[in-house]
Amino acid sequence: MSASVGEFLQQIRQLLNKDADFGQQCSTSEDLCRLLADGEDLCCLLSVLSNGRISPEGDGTVSFYSMNSEMFGRRNVKFFLSKCVHEFQMKREDLFEAEDLLLLRRPDRVLTGLRRLLSLQGLPNPANERMPSVASLDYQPLSCASRRQSDFIYSEPETPAAAASTPAAQLENIVSEICHLQAQLVDRLSLLLKFHGELRGPLSEWSSDLLDSTFKHTEHLLQVHEYFKQQLDSLAESKSAANFCTNLGSMFLQVKPRLSAVYSKYYPDYPLAKAKMEEAFQQQPQLRRQLELLERHFNAESFSILYDSPSKQMFNYQILFERLHRTAEKELATISEQAANSVELAVVECRRLLSHLNERKRYSEQEAATRQILQSIEGLPEHLTKLENVGLHRGDGQFRATLGKEQRALVQKECFCLLTDRQLIVATPAASSNGSSQQPWAFLFDVSLYENDLQLECRAGEPGGLQLKQSGKGLVRFSRPGAKKLSAGVGASLWTQLLEVRAANLPDGWNSGGHRFRRVTFEEGSECSRCRETFAGLYFQGYHCDHCNQQLDRTCLTAFLRHRPVSYPLGGPADSVASRCQQLVHDHLDRWSAERLLRRSQPGAFLIRQSGEKLVLSIRWQRAEAYHVIIQQRVSGSTGSQQYSVDPKNGIWHQSLERLVTHHRTNTLTIENVTGICLLELLLPSIYENFN
């Protein structure tokens, strides 16, 4: 224990003395997080910092879980921070939050908090000694007991290496860290394959089924990361961080399809495989002991660290790319703007990939839930046992239904109701526990996405009070078993809400602007027209417009509908002026990126960006400030067309964004709390223009 605490303190000192950018060495950051998640080490660290005031044995006031696990890590860190506030008289805002460290969400704040903690500012004199002197603890390789308080205060390195804190040096360090992170993962995956080879041996007690699920994707992960490592090493061969940044965006775009193909299968299977492995460990403890023996044999990290490392890799890429981009922004004097834009492109694409993978994981969980529900329903036709024919589960419940068709009423039946994004299934539930049998049956209602003739009718005085009717299908009335009589509309709320859920599969505007999107199943390997990602899910569902032939996933469809009107083939044409104005609007540009662009531009430079559901005009005025003005929108009462204004108080409205810009090129733009002339001069291009 003492050795690990000493090592922990040494790692903190190395971080503080090396650079102000916490987490510059990614492996060190992981080790720090792991140590801080261990309650025993935290408790001993408090003992060292408080000169024995807080006892690691515990005195009724310290209650750490001495378990290095993700479950207790958050609790340990929170308790650790609260003790620091109480014992060292520190303010909570002077430290950091547990998530800032465990998720590396705010590494800069973590570093600042550690500095303040190690300097022990405001520490009161200890009232008494609750344990033997810490001098008796042999900390190796750093003897904390022999250090004075001033030894823990951060100081700049005495060597000329202090220049390493410059943005240029930081850029080089982050580049080497990216390459090191990738090489580390390749080594871990190679080691996992060695574990796999040993566990397949004749003396192994691991079953072939358990081995197949545990190591299902290891070989493919190794192949794609070896390829990624080759690409990174080729960029780093020039020994120029500027060259690395310039080519990082295009290189990541080249590698991204391979990463997506492997991780789209790995992400959904990883939690299932890990749960299956843990269940096997509980039933057969000798399997875990065999892993421990192999860890000693290979002199390797714990198997759990090796096995979990691919699941964290994409998030690590995003963190490192973001740090590289922030540092590149500080070093624009020595690297080109194209290099900074290339790094930003890598950041954006990495975020999109993570979003896609998380969406794929959610699809997989929903597919598993739908399969489980389908297995509990008897009497389903064979084709409805396949997900590609049924769709994904949206809601279910146990009801009493009165069925009728062609004016012939059927008896009431206890039934199971399953709502998917394609149809409503009313069917016989699983056999009851008392052994009573009934003729299995299933009654289906098509739930189409827009041309839907499914009618809902609330029936007063009936429990449940809801009747569904569809042409050619008959009707079904629902009531809740044992429910009290409810007024009209109240009892129907449950299934009304469930049926409204399926409408959420199409975002608002799916049939506006001349579009007519519908949800369809594409061929395997089909790509979204916008982000070029393959469609997720078991049956590759996405959205297709019958008029413009675009095929999009849900995320891209929401963004696409904002700015892509098309001519309606049977109705009136879309506003041609509005269609020409779409180049004015930047889809993926936040406030920070807009200000960065404007800072490097002349006064009067402007752009229009999307912010949620609103349009914002960002402009650089005579000084360096960037101003952001919300563009007001309204629908004209006389013509029904959209109008825009940044000066609605004076009643100035324009029929299009283009006319608004033209007007304010020659007429002063009114901005609150700003005096002087403010005209729109130069429209800035998108920062992604060179990469699309």
Automatic annotation (TrEMBL):
GO terms for biological process: cell migration. It comes from the Eukaryota. One of its GO terms (cellular component) is cytoplasm. Gene3D superfamilies: 3.30.60.20, Calponin-like domain (1.10.418.10), Dbl homology (DH) domain (1.20.900.10), SH2 domain (3.30.505.10). Signal peptide: none annotated. InterPro entries: C1-like_sf, CH_dom, CH_dom_sf, DBL_dom_sf, DH_dom, PKC_DAG/PE, SH2, SH2_dom_sf. GO terms for molecular function: guanyl-nucleotide exchange factor activity; metal ion binding. This is Uncharacterized protein. The lineage of its organism: Eukaryota, Metazoa, Spiralia, Lophotrochozoa, Platyhelminthes.
